Amino acid sequence: MKRFAFLAILLLSAGAADAASRIKDITSIRGLRDNQLIGYGLVMGLQASGDSLRNSPFTDQSIRSMLDRLGVNVEAGSVRSKNVAAVVVTATLPPFVGKGERIDVTVSSIGDASSLAGGQLVMTPLVAADGEAYAVAQGPISISGFAASGAAEKLSEGVATAGRIANGALIERELEGDFNALTSIVLQIRNPDFATAVGISDRINKYSRAKFGVAIAAEQDFRTVHIKRPDKITVSRLAADLGELEIVPDSPARIVIDEKSGTIVIGDKVKLSTIAVTHGNLTVRVTEMPDVSQPEPFSKGETTEIPSTEIIANQTGGQLAIINGPNLEMLVDGLNQIGLKPTGIIAILQAIKTAGALQGELVVQ
Question: Taking the model in full, what pTM does it have?
Answer without folding.
Answer: 0.67
